[in-house]
Amino acid sequence: MLNIISKLYIFVLRLFGIKIGKKVRIWPLAFFSKGQKKGITGIIEIGSRCEISQGVVLKSYGGEIKINENTFLGEYSILYGHGGIEVGSNTLIAMHTCIVSSNHSIPNQNKLIRDQNDLLLPVKIGNDVWIGAGVKILGGVNIGDGCIVGAGAVVSNDLPSFSIALGVPAKVVRYRNE
Question: 61 falls in which pLDDT band (50, 70, 90)?
């Protein structure tokens, strides 16, 4: 039954311009929105053999979200791609992860924060990465290939390839080859 629902949902998403590869599985209640910002329509691309769990939210809001092949997005994860998000191949993103690729600029105290320009801060996650449950990844971050990010971490700085990072803010505690 799930396969039928998933295939039907994928068919509808493709009608709305979401690019979805082959052998993708999308669970019920996942939400996709390309949105617009300043007249620019967003882009969402899902590579082949990906799995998008229930409750996942992908909002490009005029930016681009690209999920490469054989990647898993866990339940209720949120990817806000206004500034651009790219997730590498063979990557695991556990449940309740939040990735945000923009921020508000706040230089003018005489103007409402919501009326000031957005800062577009692309996020890039490498190949063969494991993001633990409840991780928050902030704009402008690059996570190298082979990284592991422990549950509940807040990633506000780049992580080198094959590092293992934990905590708030996330800090490298060792490397996978040690």
Answer: confident
